Amino acid sequence: MIELFKFFKKKETSKDVAKERLKLVLIHDRSNVSPQFLEMVKSEIIKVIQNYMEIDEDALDIQLTRTNSDDGERIVPALVANIPIKGMKNIGR
Amino acid sequence: MGEVIVITSGKGGVGKTTTTANLGTGIAMQGKKVVLIDTDIGLRNLDVVMGLENRIVYDLVDVIEGQCRLKQALIKDKRYDGLYLLPAPQTRDKNSVAPHQMVTLCNELRQEFDYILIDCPAGIEQGFKNAIAGADRAVVVTTPEVSAVRDADRIIGLLEANEIRNPHLIVNRVRPDMVKRGDMMSIEDIIDILAIGLIGVIPDDENIIISTNRGEPVVSDSKSLAGQAYRNITRRIMGEEVPLMNFNTSDGFLAKMKKLFGIKPA
């Protein structure tokens, strides 16, 4: 659905691409978060979630990005994880 | 007591030296006494941009090491009253100067001059630390490119860590035609990302290259767009309120440019 939406959207200009890339790279620069650090967070998250669900480890995507704060007035850094679930485990039911 | 302003950028080749030369000349044209210090030891260039390369006898390190008196090393620009240059040595390395020596030098110059402009080398090592050591405030130069804006962000962080607060931003080499078609970040985009105060915008202007060829800062060229932009920034540095990109010589084009940059008339 999102892909479909993108298809109809006007083509992104190169300055939009530049701005988006800059914003992301600056989050890393400003917070000094290394890829190794993210890998560590990722493996811990996988460990915890696997206790309850079957997930697609290869498709798991985790990154630092930015989002609007709750009051909508500021842009704040956010840790966004996209974790595809294959199935639920039977424990706890 | 004079004020010490460092002109810095992080990335090389964005226009620090050109900006230092033009703001210095601009301040002198306003009747103030100003000295420009080139702190790019080993890669000096402020002398050639100013057209004063043939008059160097002593340099910054000679002064710091006591090989000559400060007055002997200052080159007086004969074209503008009150404009002086303290050149960098070409054959020494950056470790010939320590930050505390720069502080002492700046304090000595404050007694004599209204403004002390420091041309900072590229990078964030010793040369940068020396250049910002004695500064009261900072002007950060960037261009509308990903690499230059990223480095400017890093520099802003380092300035703050060294207690130089509220640096001002100059966006150099802006091309309104490219901004218009969405192929160059606008001033608004850059301010949005860097979140610091803007002190001026310099359009990409071939007169900069022509004037550098001749060793005459473009700020003295009354017909050039970049010259006008530098004159405006000079007045803002000196505390005057000047509307952004207020070029009276060519209304149509400038009105358009203002709109493109999203700048509301101040």
Characteristic key phrases:
heterodimer; A: two-stranded antiparallel ribbon; 3 helices; 4 strands; B: 266 residues; alpha/beta; 8 strands
Helix and strand sequence of chain B: EHEHHHEEHEHEHEHHEHHH
How many structural units, i.e. domains of chain B? 1
The total strand number of chain B stands at 8
Task: Output the strand order for the largest sheet of chain A.
Answer: 1-4
Distance between the termini of chain A: 33 Å
State Rg of chain A. 17 Å
What's the total helix number of chain A? 3
Biggest interface between chains: A-B, 13 and 16 residues
Multimerization status = heterodimer
CATH superfamily name of chain B?
P-loop containing nucleotide triphosphate hydrolases
How many DSSP-defined strands of chain A? Answer: 4
What is the CATH third-level topology name of chain B?
Answer: Rossmann fold
Largest sheet geometry of chain A: 2 strands, antiparallel
Structural class of chain B: alpha/beta
The percent range for strand residues of chain B is 15-25%
* Termini gap of chain B: 30 Å
Range of helix content of chain B: 40-55%
Name the helicity range of chain A. Answer: 40-55%
Count of alpha and pi helical runs of chain B: 12
User: What value does the Rg of chain B take, in angstroms?
Assistant: 18 Å
